[in-house]
Amino acid sequence: MKIQTSILIIGCSLITLGCASKAEREFLGGCQSTGMERSACKCVYQKLETKYGEEGFKNNLYTLSQTEAFQNDMVQISLQCMRE
């Protein structure tokens, strides 16, 4: 088990593109728990992060009072990604 964990950590360190940020992992986990496919959830995450930037996305995601604009964007982007 320790060897597998070490390999995973080394792999993530060497190939940062293959390892998602904490915000991305949490978003994907929550999104998938609603029944959406992983590819659609990843699409939504990427589009929202592109629109709001990494910090703007996190600020909107980790607040109890998300802006109406962010919520609308999330719904519209989710519908768009489910169609793709």
From TrEMBL:
It comes from the Bacteria. This is Lipoprotein. It comes from Acinetobacter nematophilus.
